[in-house]
């Protein structure tokens, strides 16, 4: 008995634990990306995002945790409808200034990355309600609080100590 998979009304695409080159569902979702609002590519062994991610114009949530990103994927800055972005547990060392383009971003998870300092442009994330970090100095933590006075900032290292 064959199973048919229909993606016409798809709003969530969760693709865990598979390399992107083997993600048949991702490719099929590209045939009808208009309604996709959430994509999870966590634990997918990614070190870069495909350009095709930009076809998901209504994307609001993007989960990229537990991958192999060494740099912030700059394509993300073009996904201006994002409300949630998780890049936790990647090897990213710095946040680009284009992060300011994500004006609708409400939740940003950067815990367990290598990001120690944040660009001044982070202050333009005026919709940001929650920021998860780890490994930042006390001085940088205070600076972030001053730049984002209406954002709850969670330092995951505080829970481990």
- What's the total count of β strands? 7
Query: Under the CATH scheme, which architecture would be assigned?
Result: Alpha-Beta Horseshoe
Question: What is the tally of helical segments?
Answer: 3
Would you give the CATH topology?
Leucine-rich repeat, LRR (right-handed beta-alpha superhelix)
Helix % is 10-25%
Listing every helix as H and every strand as E from the N terminus to the C terminus, the arrangement reads EHEEEEEHEH
CATH superfamily: Ribonuclease Inhibitor
Gross morphology: globular
Could you tell me the strand content as a percent range? 5-15%
Mean of the pLDDT scores? 84
Overall number of structural domains:
1
Structural class designation: alpha/beta
Distance between the termini: 53 Å
Largest beta-sheet characterization: 7 strands, parallel
Structural notes for this entry:
The protein has a 7-stranded parallel beta sheet with strand order 1-2-3-4-5-6-7. The protein is α/β, with parallel strands linked by helices and 161 residues long. Helix content is 13%, strand content 14%. The protein has a single domain (12-160), classed as Alpha-Beta Horseshoe (Leucine-rich repeat, LRR (right-handed beta-alpha superhelix)), CATH 3.80.10. It has helices at 24-29, 138-147, 156-160, and strands at 12-14, 38-40, 61-63, 84-86, 107-109, 130-133, 152-155. Mean pLDDT is 84; it is low at 1-12 and 15-22. Helix 2 links the parallel strand 6 (130-133) and strand 7. The longest helix has 10 residues, at 138-147. The termini are far apart. The chain has 3 helices and 7 strands.
């Amino acid at each position: 008995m064959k199973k048919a998979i229909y993606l016409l009304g798809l709003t969530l695409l969760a693709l865990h634990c598979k390399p992107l080159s083997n993600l048949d569902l991702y490719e099929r979702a590209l045939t009808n990306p208009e309604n996709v609002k959430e994509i999870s590519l966590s634990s997918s062994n990614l070190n870069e995002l495909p350009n095709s991610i930009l076809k998901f114009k209504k994307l609001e949530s993007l989960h990229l945790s537990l991958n192999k990103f060494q740099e912030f994927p700059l394509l993300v800055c073009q996904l201006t409808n994002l409300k949630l972005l998780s890049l936790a547990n990647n090897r990213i060392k710095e946040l680009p200034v284009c992060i300011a383009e994500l004006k609708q971003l409400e939740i940003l998870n950067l815990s367990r990355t290598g990001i120690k300092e944040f660009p001044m442009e982070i202050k333009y994330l005026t919709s940001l309600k929650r920021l998860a970090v780890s490994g930042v100095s006390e001085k940088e933590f205070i600076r972030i609080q001053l730049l984002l006075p209406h954002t709850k900032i969670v330092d995951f290292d505080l829970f481990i100590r």
